[in-house]
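Lab notebook, entry 314. We have the chain sequence and a SMILES string for flavin-adenine dinucleotide, and the next step in the workflow is to get a structural model of the bound complex before anyone spends time on docking refinements. Request logged below.

Task: model protein plus flavin-adenine dinucleotide, output structure tokens.
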Amino acid sequence: MACREVHAPALSGFGFNMVGPAIIKFGTARQQADLLPKIRNADLWFCQGYSEPEAGSDLASLRTRADRDGDDYIINGSKIWTSGAELADWIFCLVRTNDQVQQQRGISFLLMDLASPGVTVEPLYAFNGKRLWNQVFFENVRVPVQQRLGEEDQGWTVAKSLLGDERLMVSRVAENKRILSLLKEALALQQAQDIQLPPEAEAEIAALEIRLMALETTSLRILSQADAGAQIGAEPSMLKLKGSELVQDQDELLFRLIDYLALPQDTSRGDHPAVTPPWAEYVASGRYHHRSYTIAGGSSEIQHNIIAKQVLGL
Ligand SMILES: Cc1cc2nc3c(=O)[nH]c(=O)nc-3n(C[C@H](O)[C@H](O)[C@H](O)COP(=O)(O)OP(=O)(O)OC[C@H]3O[C@@H](n4cnc5c(N)ncnc54)[C@H](O)[C@@H]3O)c2cc1C
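Result returned:
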């Protein structure tokens, strides 16, 4: 099995663990036999090529073209905000195969090798200097037709199914638990040093913990329904909304509570016992980075729209 030195959390948002269920649902027997074992072993990593410079929330307006030429498609266009493209082997991509029909009906879903001639991956950096995304350019890239997932022009169905699975994965229960444990540690550290904390701090932590318990219970309920084969509708959107908002609210309180403990240790005059926990210096960076959670995977406004339409029938 391939072994790559990548910090595990860096992988969490990648497409590499998202495309498997779509291949199980929509792939040919050959695609399943070729790709699923490699994905399971992490020998083959995918990134997600959905967003384009002028197609984010309005994804169906995407313009990257795939023109048929014999047994191949010829791809031209570009994808943006592609997390992990610098590490991935392949990209799963939404492309326009028909511009004579309603937007959603002219899209196909392709699986592409990023090493194909004509693919260029350019870095995009976040506020803290981290290479968080990429822009991927395609210039006359040949992709065999047999690497299409699902029928031609029917890629929107595959795309929506994958987005549902992605949103189920980003309810962020585990991450919220980790932040909650830091909140409790921060509180204990401040109390141990007799620091005067806002009187409502403990009650705020308790309220966040209750929200987390509700999120976890609901996630488990929906996952077991999905496992039993039930049709899942707007539930992933609800989980994504609640999970990402909870991360941001917990971050906000952690940022307030950690206060001076977030300062880097000054060791210029020799060693001394550390007074800050090693995670504290990442609190500010995490707080800003996690603002992206209510955008990535479909913004909160879009999740509200889905719920309004599917649940309330508006
Ligand atoms: C950290 C991160 C990682 C990402 N990784 C990937 C990736 O790997 N692959 C990929 O393909 N994409 C990725 N994205 C892109 C992401 O999917 C888009 O940013 C997202 O869909 C929003 O699109 P946009 O940025 O074009 O914003 P826009 O669509 O331009 O939206 C701008 C604002 O308008 C609001 N808005 C838009 N339409 C409506 C509407 N109909 N109703 C109400 N409000 C609306 C939005 O909510 C938002 O606040 C990533 C984004 C982030 C932040």
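Notes for the group: The domain at 8-152 is CATH 2.40.110.10 (Butyryl-CoA Dehydrogenase, subunit A; domain 2). Worth checking against the assay data. The chain has two domains: 8-152, 170-266+273-310.
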